[in-house]
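Hey, resending since the last one bounced:
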Amino acid sequence: MSARTGRSFDPWDPAFVENPYPAYAELRERGRVHFFEPTNQWLVPHHADVSALLRDRRLGRTYLHRYTHEEFGRTPPPPEHEPFHVLNDHGMLDLEPPDHTRIRRLVSKAFTPRTVEGLRPYVHALADELVQRLVDAGGGDLLTDVAEPLPVAVIAEMLGIPQGDRHLLRPWSADICGMYELNPSPETAQKAVRASVEFSDYLRELIAARRKEPGEDLISGLIAAHDEGDRLTEQEMISTAVLLLNAGHEATVNATVNGWYALFRHPGQLAALRADHSLIPSAIEELMRYDTPLQLFERWVLDEIEIDGTTIPRGAEIAMLFGSANHDPAVFPDPDRLDLTRRDNPHISFSAGIHYCIGAPLARIELAASMNALLTKAPTLTLAEEPRRKPNFVIRGLEGLRVVMT
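The structure tokens again:
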């Protein structure tokens, strides 16, 4: 039988948002699936189930390739939200095959390992520059001074966004991503719609300019793929560019600040890392596991499934708890302990299956570059004040992370 969630799982409670991991442990102990009435979702907290469901084709990020809203028992989104949904629903993250396959294949051609590896010198040089500025100032906000500008600049460079326009990107992204929280408010939706319109209009003009004068950037590459065989519509190009920007920096920004906050709270682990920079690769994986940047990922049930004797019908929505899966003791011994030497670390912070994060290799390069620069240039970096956690649950981050050189 299905379990009903207790009061400890409350994604709108600041105490829960501050530290959701004890509530996850309670959910795991009480069962494999729980119905959560406030969001009308089935919560799945165990690593094995989350990992399997991410690969299960009976689930989908969308249902519109098979059913209408009415056939699926769902209410269509309000007409005033249409600009957001047009933008969101044409990106490969929210599509299923065959459209997902087609778009991902085209994007992969412009996002090859060689292309990503070619960005490494640029990423490291930019990380060094940003950290040096932080050091010269005697400290600052690690979020706004290093964590944000690095991945935003890198993905903007890939897309070919002119330098003078890049300040627009982060605010647009933040407003759009507000819609990925649970039960977003009308104000959040209004901001997301406005950002969707402005960002789409901007990219439409940029695409027109690149048609006349193609460059070596990703947008030019997507246009070429589009023009060769009419395989990408203009809307798909716009949605892909927005997705790459949003997904290409949100996780990296939050992984950086969540990770450094965890290190400051575990001085023994930080000291070990400062003494041995060869730990950087395993440290990145462990920090992404320990305080997961994306706590929850949703799927629609396209065909009835069963979890531990509980039948979940077609039309239901499943919320896979990445943060809980990454702390499952069945997979991670002593999961609440930060261990930068942890080797067997199959965390799912980059998802799995056909929607595995296409930008994961680039994210790892960015995280390693900023960590190496901070360890090398700022060996005495310490926390200046306790940070405030953002009120969001799904996308987990900090309002800021003030640091000083001691």
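The chain has a mean pLDDT of 93.

Sorry for the duplicate.
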